[in-house]
Amino acid sequence: MFFLPSKIIGFFLAPVHFFIFLAVIGATLLFTRWKTWGRALSIASALALLLMAFGPLAGLLASPLEARFPPPPHDMPAPDGIIVLGGAIDERLSASRNRPTVVDAAERLTAPISLKRKYPSARLVFTGGSSAPRGSTYSEADAVQRFWRDLGLDQGDVLYERRSRNTYENAIFTRDLLLPKPGERWLLVTSAIHMPRAVGAFRQAGFDVIAYPVDYRTSGDDGLEFPRFATKALGLVEFAAHEWAGLVAQRLFGKSDALFPTP
């Protein structure tokens, strides 16, 4: 019930989409008796898109999220298992091309390979079904299984959770699959910008995890960051805004015990 409305609302309220729609409305109003409103909406939308594309907004939104959970030390004790969240596969292209198609969050899939080789006795679990609004017969887990197999990862003890459609379902279904015992150490691998929301969901599900952030999008340096490419900046604004909105929604709907989870 929560999944489909969140997809629809997220589509229309995504910052870039929102201001494009607003600009279209403003341009339309220029041909009516509400020209003043049309001019104001058009100018405001253009300025907002310029700020997102060429200003420091992307970094300002993303940096606090990425800095929230630092990576564990390199000499940490060996974990009992490694949980990898979906979000690195384009399901539609993977299905149509019949091969795994990785998006720009590829480190979500490459980092676990290194971790598995470093900690061979740790159990490896991937969680991710289909995020398509109407569902799909082809899950992200299917593509990841093939991707890891093609890279030579031993599939003997790898588990795949194929039902989850969002972060909270990742937590619930993975908990039910693994039935973690008290005292076990489980690493959670996902994009650094997504880690606060992911940890909040797992904690609410009663599954204590150790954050292992990857796929950083900001430098972590002090000061404002201005983008080199407008398309990347717009994408980062969308990603960060989605995460902030997700944190608020999770808290409001009881899917996290904190608005901004702490380490």
Automatic annotation (TrEMBL):
Q: Which InterPro entries match?
A: Cell_Envelope_Assoc, DUF218, Rossmann-like_a/b/a_fold
Assigned keywords, A-Z = Membrane, Transmembrane, Transmembrane helix
PANTHER family found in the cross-reference section: ENVELOPE BIOGENESIS FACTOR ELYC, INNER MEMBRANE PROTEIN, PROBABLE PERMEASE
Q: Which organism is it from?
A: Methylocystis hirsuta
Q: Where are the transmembrane segments?
A: 12-31, 43-62
According to UniProt, the name of this protein is YdcF family protein
Pfam families for the chain: DUF218
Which residues does the UniProt record annotate as the domain DUF218? 80-246
Q: Name one GO cellular component term.
A: plasma membrane
Taxonomic lineage is: Bacteria, Pseudomonadati, Pseudomonadota, Alphaproteobacteria, Hyphomicrobiales
Gene Ontology biological process terms in this record: Gram-negative-bacterium-type cell wall biogenesis; peptidoglycan metabolic process
Which Gene3D superfamilies does UniProt cross-reference here? HUPs (3.40.50.620)
